[in-house]
Hints:
Elements: H1 2-5, H2 15-18, H3 25-39, H4 49-64, H5 96-108, H6 112-138, H7 141-152, H8 155-161, H9 167-185, H10 191-205, H11 207-224, H12 229-250, H13 255-259, H14 266-283, H15 289-304, H16 312-335, H17 348-365, H18 367-378, H19 383-391, H20 397-408, E1 414-417, H21 421-427, E2 431-434, E3 449-451, H22 459-471, E4 478-485, E5 508-513
Parallel strand pairs: 1-2, 1-3
Antiparallel strand pairs: 3-5, 4-5
Amino acid sequence: MVAAETFGPELESRPGKYGRWGGALFPAGLLAAALVLLGLGLDHQLLWQDEAQTALIGRTILDHGLPLGTDGLNLFSQESGAEYGSDFIWRWHTWLQFYAVALSFQLLGQSTLAARLPFVLFGAGTMVLQYFFALRLTSSRWTAVFSAVLLLLCVPFLILSRQCRYYSPLAFFSLGALHAYLGLVNGRPGSLAWLVAAATLVFHTHQFFWATLLVTLILHASIFHPSKIKPVLIALALTLILTGPWLVWLAPAKYLQSYGSEFLSLTAAADKMLVFFDQVNFGVWPWYLLLAAAALAVIQKLKDRTSAIPPRRLQGPLALILLYIAVNLAALSLTAPSAYFRYLTPLIPLFLVLAGILAGAAWTWRPWAGAAVLAAVLLPQPLPAYFYEITHDFGSPTKCLIEFLRARAEDGDVAAITYGDLPLKFYTRLRVVGGLTGEDPSLARQARWVIIRPWVMGRPDYLVKKYYLENLDLKRYRPHVLNCGDYPHENRESPEVHPFREPIGHSPLIVFERPGPAAGVPTPPR
């Protein structure tokens, strides 16, 4: 058992000392802590651009039963209209996130808190599932505890789970599918049905990660469990049957219209892979833990004169984690529009399971070594900054702008903005043009309110800003200098740009008001 214990002490063999961890006490405490860390101050910051898009589309379900890219007043596109067809039914993403928001709005009313709450619940559920997944993977309760605690205190995952976006459901259902797969190959009753359900829900959360999940499970079963390949293929075939009609329906989405230049480019893939590695290193799993793993293996080899290779019962499970990570990183590097941190969401729990395994092995050798591994993962986390954010309400350009327009503008007024149009569409009843919708920028000529942000996020809003500056005579407009700075990222999920408190030193936010009577512009067709 020495070699086995290197990858996690077998606490089941000592129930007298550790029996209290075997029941519901730890998972219940974990869930309570997760709900506090995720739910506190949930409505302090308003929805930013991407979150507002999810909330706006979810709101259309309450009126139409289907997620639409317009409410009849405004368009919700960020890809110049590529996300929908002439019927405006949303095709860019699968729909689970929108129906989750719609259900929350139906039960709690339309608010910032209601928009984010379903995703907080999925995030908390992922942390509890992390414990049971690591326990099934390694049969070590300390490893399971370490893995769950590391995820609980992972600030990037906390930020992702507080977003009104598909991130936390994706992590939950992906981890659930891997958990069910382990049960299936180990002959646990009911696992096939659980795998079909979880994999299908992965698809309805984000179709890309459904494809990488299927590839991973087929490869892993073929290599490590060839005798179980039949039930695995049956489960995946059932999943394909359930999702096949949706695949056909989603096919017309014009992904390559927006991201064709990045698709299957080896040069771009290499650049994105390096960025992903850097993000994992500084946000989730510092690569110097590899040195700790190597040192532990050498100690085992010198002390016990046994192989430093993981015991056979752990080689397959460890390979499942590594294979899933590798398949996703390779596929993302080849196809993603950019190396956005959010794409790593389903990988974060698995990286921290690896860290939990290493901490468990080090703890078995020397408790101080296990504590050192845990500290190596947790000390880089900006936990003080995160605690400040969830306990303090502070201003933002979006909040400042919305408060100004609510006080000055009238319902139906037209506002033109270069970027940040979607929060305005969620929190006001203005007709908002500009941003990334692809609408005719000349509509801004009739706008009563014009907001030109001092920075750009990409070529579409750069062109909108360029048009406004060249074609609107701003000298004829009345400038309102708001008492807040204008910075770009607000509540964005990427940890390297996420503001945990209000930044200082930015240019003031300016709103230009056109003199004279309000002039309307056409609304999108209903």
